[in-house]
Amino acid sequence: VTIVWLNGALCDADAARIEPTDRGFTMGDGLFETIRAMNGVPARLPRHFARLREGAGVLGLPVPHDDIVLERALREVLAPNALGDAVLRLTLTRGPAARGVLPQVISTPTLSITAAPLPAPLPPARVIVSQVTRRNAFSPLSRVKSLNYLDSILARLEAGRAGADDALLLNTQGDLAEATAGNVFLWVDGALLTPRIEDGALPGICRAVLLETHRITECRIPEHLIDQAQAGFLSNSLGLRSLSHIAGRQLETQYSLPELSD
Amino acid sequence: VTIVWLNGALCDADAARIEPTDRGFTMGDGLFETIRAMNGVPARLPRHFARLREGAGVLGLPVPHDDIVLERALREVLAPNALGDAVLRLTLTRGPAARGVLPQVISTPTLSITAAPLPAPLPPARVIVSQVTRRNAFSPLSRVKSLNYLDSILARLEAGRAGADDALLLNTQGDLAEATAGNVFLWVDGALLTPRIEDGALPGICRAVLLETHRITECRIPEHLIDQAQAGFLSNSLGLRSLSHIAGRQLETQYSLPELSD
Question: Which pTM does this prediction carry?
Fold first, then answer.
């Protein structure tokens, strides 16, 4: 039986109960973090907790525990699942509520942590540029890892229909923002480029580490520049993934992925 | 005890269990309908079911029951709650799943129905124009009553901070789209105007009834036109609500709300 951590205690996944009135379920009113664990140790927790608290601030959502309790909870859920190398997911919602868009003044947030085996590294990705939807860089949600994931889901379904592995999302101005579950980096004429936060890139944690440790230019990337990329890769908290094709065009293969420090 | 309908059966709300891995909870991967019931009879069901099925098509989500079963379920949940005049909420999600953005090929959708007393009519609303976020009319989700409600929640919180009752949302082009939980209609120089679907207005059911039965112009409403409105109102499946103020400016009071046929 899988074990999850829910609102302060470990329990069997079969018994873990989210209420049908939970605003996470009824309105996507919450956020999450995806955290890699190696040998039972969750990685980059200070960065994850800082982003969680910043996002919770945008949503006006209290985080019910301090970082020490959160770290203990993340570690606790690994052992009974016999997972050393794992991917943890921490989900925080505004909790159960009566109907209505406006959050109630007093609410009890829901906090759940689940763990899954760390997926094997994936082969280079064929990506398309999504035609069905755009990322809204006018919304503060573009900077929050919120539960409102349907635009990414629609783009990912579109990629699947096109025989691709993932989709790049443009923002409503037509500039590159990110992929459906990670940030995107492109090699263009010897420079490594990545979209700016104000263009709709989620402030990814792996992205931040790369920006601190490599020569990378954050800039506006209009769609025509995507067509000029010689190579590229995606990043998220699970790691990096090369791009093999963009919109059917094969990329060059002599570019290696950057080293990622912890 | 409140009774809810969950995946085919009535049960106590205290026992109704959504799994922590439900994609409605983890990703907002689903949609809903809010339905008014009068004397135990849910209103405008053919329109609600048509919109539900159209939205489910956009999301690539199967609707697990035909309209007859859905109607029976909606009626069933009213009686044990001793509710005649009520507001019903039907929520459909892609159901429990392993992690990953791409939906699994085989999934069991989650369908829940909850009921609450019909709220009393509200006094005329003071509204602001949201400055914190915009509605993404480039996304097909702007035409779906999806669970991704955070932009509306952020705007509604902003309204509360400003001492207002609700917020109008502009789209990323700067044109009026809708309010946080309903469509918006404005009287401008003798004409009654409402934003077009392509401007980011949700295809509201009350909106559709009004358009069929009254002289109303669907048009692009740039922000400066909002400042010229003499009066206006909001609409959703629970009814109409006059506007008393927009962005602190008092509106005229001689305009009456249109009659709403069923």
Answer: 0.97
